[in-house]
Amino acid sequence: MIIDFEKINEESVMNFKGGEGQLDTRNFVDSANKIMMSRLKPGASSGYHTHENNSEIVYIISGVGHFRYDDTTENVKAGDVHYCPMGHSHAMFNDGTDDLVYFAIVPEHKL
Question: By three-state DSSP, how is residue 3 classified?
Answer without folding.
Answer: coil
